[in-house]
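User: My collaborator and I are trying to settle a disagreement about how two of our proteins should look. Neither of us wants to argue from intuition anymore, so we agreed to look at predicted structures for both before our next call. Could you fold the first one, then the second, and keep them clearly separated?

Assistant: That sounds like a sensible way to settle it. I'll keep them separate. The first protein:
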Amino acid sequence: MTLNCKGKLIDISSPKIMGILNLTPDSFYDGGSYKTDTDILNQVEIMLNEGATFIDLGAYSSRPNADNISEAEELKRILPIVELILKKFPNALLSIDTFRSGIAKQCIETGACMINDISAGKLDDNMLDMVASLQVPYIMMHMKGTPQTMQQNTNYENLVKDIIFYFSERIASAKALGINDIIIDPGFGFAKTPEQNFKLLNRLELLNTINKPILAGLSRKSMIYKTLKTSAKEALNGTSVLNTIALQKGASILRVHDVKEANECVKLVESLKA
């Protein structure tokens, strides 16, 4: 199983790590941590050296009840950073965490290689057409509502069945437009209660029936630190435990704040297959 990133085929039959770089002041864990160009480049270098295949840049916080910002503000935050990183690390594979097609288009044209859309095209009617025109890998996540309303949208007839149906519909729409490289993200923490998050992780292998790579975004999320009665800052060990479970259930990409520890999870789980 491969992804075509700027003409380079990335083999994800062995799981890969996506390092998170939040360019927002209000993200739940590291918001506001990278204020200068030097801070940003140092963090990217650390993640690349620790084994990140992809760097995921986000300039719109999607945590529950996050402020809505304008497209102009999002572009102002993210586009110069794409340019900055690729000037220093021209071979870096940058993923753009946005649900806005205009942001995605400009970042891809600047040199990013992948789009990570929390709404699977549901918050911007132009997104799927734009992805098809650029022929880049597309991560589609499961969410109901918006970041501002998702926590009021946690009712399901059958959680896993509903998510599989959602992806089946979104993938069909994407394929009809000619989108080839599709990754699914079940959306831990998005329109799901903590109990639902654990139920979803426990049955994650059922998503393999969709026959698309699975991205697991569990890093330092509230399902970990609320269960352990701690904080996001203290949730690294719990993150490693759940990342390991996700890998054993078929995850192909781990989206994480802590690349070194996630890479260790991959190496250990892969060793079980030897």
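The second protein, kept apart from the first:
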Amino acid sequence: MSVAIITGSAGLVGSEAVAYFASLGMDVVGIDNGMRAHFFGEEASTKWVRDQLIRDISAYCHYEADIRDSESIGHIFEHYKGDISLIIHAAAQPSHDWAASNPTVDFAVNANGTSVMLEATRLFAPEAVFIFMSTNKVYGDLPNYLPMVERETRWEVEPSHSYAKDGIPESMPIDRTMHSLFGVSKVAADLLVQEYGRYFGIKTGCFRGGCLTGPNHCGTQLHGFLAYLMKCAVTGTPYTIFGYKKKQVRDNIHSADLICAFHEFFNRPRPGEVYNIGGGRHSNCSMLEAMELCEQISGKQLNSRYVDVNRRGDHIWWIGDISRFQQHYPEWNLQYNVPHILHEMFEVNRERWSRQCEMLAS
């Protein structure tokens, strides 16, 4: 028996990983205590995803455990110990806005929770592969100091700059920059994951994601930009854009493409490695471009307003350079781009979103 332990198993990345690795014949242990609803309210609850996983995947076992609770996590790991071959740590407090409202909980979940997961791995499953879902926020706001050119619908890096062709590489420094408190807690976890790989020899890998998205994303105003934008277009919910003339750029990776990257690393791990992972030059958009696509796909005009103040530390432009991962794992390629992602998101969720809207109105 080969066991995969997946934290945040009802979230976007976690649920995609559960379905994928169960389909390979692995037994999957999910750890998720539903804190997304605590962070962002009931509209962001992943309970429906959890229930779907329990119902549809016979090889799935769910634990309502808190990753900060070393005793509970230790019991789970001790129960499966030698059978554990993979840990995907995707549970997190994911919003830099929310982190500023409660820095203590943010750091406890993101940094201390990761420490608990790593130590359980070292004690009970030292031969397993440990994959950590990190973030581009570890670079802080340093990308905002790149030379920018304003285009009609987006900001772009000056064409002569070394980052213009492929995006921002892992060699960008993480020091002397404003990270946001969320970024700091993820930096702490990111470095800890690297250290367990280099110091203890655990097969760890850090994946620094851009915007992660897909049809299972329970997007809210504070987190999950593409999913929430499409939801607002479908339901008529007002959407607020903050700063940068609506031209801020993000790369977007579909959760299925991300999990395929995890599988490549699982098959051939490189302990202590770090990768920028996202849509790269293949899959990216500005806010203006995403709004236009959502309106075209939904057939509705987005109810939006613009605030000419950007969020502190928010990136003007982020396209991650994914070439290093592709060099190490040349069989991996992106299958989705932004229009494909938004079309799928609309088809899968429009009826559920409309029902939610009707329930709230009644």
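Some points you might bring to the call about the second protein. The radius of gyration is 20 Å. The CA atoms of residues 295 and 301 lie 5 Å apart.
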